[in-house]
Every structure is written in C-alpha cells, then in structure tokens.
Amino acid sequence: MDNNHYCVIMAGGNGSRLWPASTTACPKQFMDIAETGKTSIRNTYDRFSSIVPKDNILVVTVRKYRDLVLRDIPELKEENLLLEPYARDTAPCIAYAAYTLFKRNPQATMVVTPADHLIDDDEKFREAIVRSIEFVSENNVLMTLGITPTRPDPNFGYIQITGGSAALQKAGAIKVKTFTEKPDVSLAKVFIASGEFFWNSGIFVWTAETIIREMEKHLPEVTRVFSGWEHAVGTPMEEEFISRAYTDCVKISIDYGVMEKTDKAWLYPADFGWSDVGTWESLYGCIGEKDMNGNIFNTAKILTEDSHDVVVYSSTYDKLVAVKGLENYVVIDTGKALLICPKDDKKLKEFTARLSMPGFENYR
Amino acid sequence: MDNNHYCVIMAGGNGSRLWPASTTACPKQFMDIAETGKTSIRNTYDRFSSIVPKDNILVVTVRKYRDLVLRDIPELKEENLLLEPYARDTAPCIAYAAYTLFKRNPQATMVVTPADHLIDDDEKFREAIVRSIEFVSENNVLMTLGITPTRPDPNFGYIQITGGSAALQKAGAIKVKTFTEKPDVSLAKVFIASGEFFWNSGIFVWTAETIIREMEKHLPEVTRVFSGWEHAVGTPMEEEFISRAYTDCVKISIDYGVMEKTDKAWLYPADFGWSDVGTWESLYGCIGEKDMNGNIFNTAKILTEDSHDVVVYSSTYDKLVAVKGLENYVVIDTGKALLICPKDDKKLKEFTARLSMPGFENYR
C-alpha cells in the first residue's frame, strides 16, 4: 500500500434524521443500526484498512464524540483524530483534514468518506477507490463516487455527467456537467430516465493540494479562517488555533461550496451496493424485510392491517408491533422514546426539530 | 357487619380489550393499570372489607388465574376461591356463586362485582351498596347499580327507569323499565337527553335465593347443568361437578340472560365516580392528563403535532412519545408489544382478535 494515500473518515454528524434510534448522545455512526455486527464507523475503518495503511486513516469528529470514536477504534493514534469544536458541515471539516495531510505529506491523496454509509460489496468498493486514487494522482481533479440510482429518491444530490450515457462506455472516470441538490420526485424521475445522472455518494477522492487550491478559489470565506495553518496544525497550538478558526467559520457543505462551482469535478461510476443510511427509507431499502404491502420492519413479529409503506424499527427484536390504519409512516421504538410520524423526510425533520425546545434535553 | 351479607368478586376476565397492556397471562384485574398503588382486585377486596365480613368475600375466577388471585389476596381462604374451568361469561359464574352461598346460608344476600372497576369515592360507594343490601333484604328484587351517564358512550349498557325522571326525586331504588346493550352514539345521546337512562355498572345486589329463582325461570339452560348442586358444592366432589357442568354450559351474560327478561329488575342510582376500565377511553376519561387537543397520556413526556384524541399509554413512565398526524388512535406501548390502532372499540377488538392466530402465543 502506498504511503502517500490517506483516508479521512468524517464522523461528526448528529444523526438527527434517524431519531430516536440515533440520538445526539450516540449518533448512528457509533451504532450498528443496520445490524452488521459492528458499528458503522468501525466498518468504515476496517473497509479502508485494506486500501491504505492504518496509520494513514484519520477521523474528524466533534470533540464530544472523541470517546465514542476511541471506543470503536481504540488503536487510532492521537494525531490521527482531528477534533472540531462544533459541527460546521463538511467544507471546514475537509479543510482541516486537507491542511493536516498536506503538512504531513505534500503528495498526499485523500479519500473523504462519511462514517455511516452501508456498503454491500467491499471488493467492488475497494476497486472503485483504488482506481479513483490512481486517477487523481495523475490528473488534477476532484473525484466523487457516483451511484447508479435505483429510485427517484428526493433526498439525494444528483450529478449529471458530460457526453451523455455513451461516455459511460469508456472505462473509468467521467467529467461532471452539473450538480443538483435534492430535486423533487418528478424531476428525479426525468433525471433517472435520461441515464445521465448519478447519486452523489458524498465519498470524494482528491489530492490534498488540489482540494486546498479549489477551496481557496471557491470558498475563501473558509480558507481565510485557517490562515496560518502552516504554523499551527500538528503543533501544540493546534487546538487553540482550530477553536478560533471554527468560531469564525461559516457552516457550509463541500458540495455547495466547491463541487457545484469547480470545473474540476469528475465522477467515478460505482456499483457496490450503497446506502447513506440518511433516512429510514434508505436504510430499510437495503436491509429490511418487506411484506406484500410494502411495510418494512426489523422486529421478529409484526401484525398489520389496512397499513402500507410503514417503516417499523424497534431496538427490541422480539417486540411485537401491531399497526392498523397507517400509510407511509415511520414507527421507531427505542427504550427511551417512541416516534410515530409520516415518513416524509421534511415532515420528520420539522417535527423532530421541536426536540430542541426546553424539556427534551434527555431525549435528543 | 351482618353475617348474612356476602360479596362475590368476578375475576375471570381476560382483559383483551386493553391489550397489550393487559394480557391473558396477566389481565387488567391483576394490574394497577390506573396507577392507584394497588392492583384492581386488591382494591376491590379492600373496598368490600369495610362492608361485609372478610370471610364473606368470595372470588370467582378461572383456574389459570388462581395464583394471581392468591398473590394479591393471600389471606383469601380456599373455600372462598371458586375456580371455573373456563370462562363462560357472567351467568354461569353467578350461578356457581349463588348455589355456593345459598348452601352456606339460605338467608345470604350477595353483592356481585367485577374485579377491575375504578371507584373514586369509597364512602359514597359504601353507602350505595349498604342501601341496596337493605333494599333487597326486604324486597324480592334484583338490584343493579346505575351510573349517571356523562357522555354518549356506545360501549356501555343503558338502563331506563320507570316513571320518568321525576321518580329520581324519591330516595332509594327505582324500578327498571328497559335494558339496552351498547346503543350507537346517536341513540345514546337521545337516552342521555331524556334523563331516564343510566349506565349499567355491572354491579348487582340480590339474595342468593332470588337470583337462583330468576335464573331457574329465565335461564333453565344454565341452571339445568347445575342440577344436583346441593350435593356437590362445598364437598370434595365440587371440582369434578363444576368441570362437568361448565363443559355443557352455554356462554351467556347475566344481563342478557336474566336482567333483560325479569320483571324484578331495580336500579339504585349511584354517583361515586366510576369507570369500568373496559376501554382505553373509559380508563383515561377518569385518570389521564388531557392536553388541549384531547390527547390523553400517562407518560412524563409527550410531543404531538397535527394529532387529536390520541390515547397514549406506556408502561415506562419516562419514555418520550412523539406523535404526528394521528387522530382518534390508541398508542399502547409495553416492553413486549406496541399497538397503534384507531381508537374505535370495535376496530380494536377485531384487530387484536387476530392475535389468536398461530405464532402470537407469547404476546396474547
């Protein structure tokens, strides 16, 4: 394995969309929500351990999750755990990691990955990553792994490739034409029918140098707060420096801040069985059992009547869940909380956002 | 306290209408579902202990609940625990108790009461019972305690009194004109508006002799299977005799079998804060907290949106229940099962009846 290749696992999310199964006290990346036998962050770490040297795997998270990261990856060295004072979305997180890696190794390539994705086929995944690393090592581009869409899901970003679907016939990467964040279902249907669109996996591959240059160009409001990083990251001053930088930093995603603006965006089409585990639908689309009315559940026993497209999750496997008269709902049951809500992701988000009111501290 | 007065607690119900809080393994009479600090059967026993001598309190239940009765009333003497081989509704249960008491004491008066009712005002209750006992001791009638209705609940039996509402002005008991089982809501509204109707509490007072005569007259199919009781009850042959009798016995309620047919039905109007705890609505109508949208709940924390008239019960008090978009539902959560169903009692009953299918043995 090449010592110039690194992986950065982003593990700072609070997993609020899967509340109450996932809570801010223990977000989904620190859970085995898909029942694989390991937590998501551990699966991610192990998956990359066969692609890059273990000492080249970094984890970026917010400070409050430090102990959870070390619980799941006790062998992680201190210098490979980057702690953010607050979550500021992906762009500042990637800037912090890129400066850190560039200072360690100016030749560094970086794979950037969320900590909580589900991957079915590790071998295909490995191949896509290795090919992407080879490509960005030779070409000055920002690579994103694109997933062939299987349904018009309005919760994903969609990426259009150049040259139409014919370009897909050529092996390897393809230049990106447009990014579209979360289209409505009808637009998503058009996208899929065209054959030119992929889901944005949120897994990126590039060199530290290229992403730093593109951020300086498209996101000066972020790179500005990191001024002086050369003298701070990897030194005893790092914590104080990062605290100050984050205090002044905007909250912005790498997709919105860089990928939608750059002319260096490329896509590697991938087909390794992927779920971002971002919503109950996407999680159970991969792993749940579905009855003939489209009800999906993880419990041993379910009794339904006049119900369809209900997602049932219980932290107690042998609990019987009996549901009558629900359509397009989620029923999420943990020891501490029970959520019954229409499945629509926006409604779910709006509703659970009310947990930020005083009095719900113990349940978030 | 008069040694001729007895109380018979009927404790054989399987409490299926409050499933899954109440299960056939532990029906509601053996639970403290209203959170009073004692189980319902214990509350019932204690309430009658100040009205009749303790040795004059009998419990009738099905054999499988024997240990639960003795768990809650360890001081109950063996001869005062009547065990039915199967549940055959109230008429055979009352026949068994009446023959037992008549053999012990031909002067016996009997109060017959379900084991699971909630009574708010013990003193008013005591007064109603004592007055009723006095009345039936002197008059050859079947007395039922009538409850002033507070809502047009279609789940109750309604009793019309003779002589119109003016008769209520006289103290004491009133002769009954008609019994009507579970009218629809619109008819129940007419009943209530008339001022002539009471809810049938299912609590009866009579002498053993009178009820035996009236059963022989109106329910010969029941009394026939008890032929020879004089030589069997209270003897070593009792268990075998009762087993044979119940095998051949029809399943029928005392209301349908006797009260609707007899000309000896009287009513004692009572106002002691009563709930039969027969449905979630009736239980929470008495004791739950209600928010401004009519949602009733027993948990410490609830979060609702676009929801009204939802009954929430959790066996875990500090569990947060978050409900969006439900109207007229019950949400019943125990450690073993979760029920989400329209509140309508018939729908609930039909739905939970499906638990009799194979595979649900552990959840009934």
Automatic annotation (TrEMBL), chains A, B:
Q: Taking every annotated instance into account, which residue ranges of this chain make up the domain Nucleotidyl transferase?
A: 8-284
MannoseP isomerase/GMP-like beta-helix domain location, by residue? Answer: 306-349
Q: Which reaction does it catalyse?
A: alpha-D-mannose 1-phosphate + GTP + H(+) = GDP-alpha-D-mannose + diphosphate
Set out the biological process GO terms recorded for this chain's protein: GDP-mannose biosynthetic process
Q: Does the keyword Nucleotide-binding apply?
A: yes
Q: Which SUPFAM superfamilies match?
A: Guanosine diphospho-D-mannose pyrophosphorylase/mannose-6-phosphate isomerase linker domain (SSF159283), Nucleotide-diphospho-sugar transferases (SSF53448)
Enzyme Commission numbers on file: 2.7.7.13
The reply to whether Oxidoreductase figures as a keyword in the UniProt entry is: no
**GO molecular function terms here?**
GTP binding; mannose-1-phosphate guanylyltransferase (GTP) activity
User: Which keywords does UniProt give here?
Assistant: GTP-binding, Nucleotide-binding, Nucleotidyltransferase, Transferase
CDD domains hit by this protein? GDP-M1P_Guanylyltransferase
By its UniProt entry, which InterPro entries does this protein fall under?
GMPP_N, ManC/GMP-like_b-helix, Mannose-6P_isomerase_type2, NTP_transferase_dom, Nucleotide-diphossugar_trans
Similarity annotation: Belongs to the mannose-6-phosphate isomerase type 2 family.
What PANTHER family does the annotation carry?
MANNOSE-1-PHOSPHATE GUANYLYLTRANSFERASE
Q: What is this protein called?
A: mannose-1-phosphate guanylyltransferase
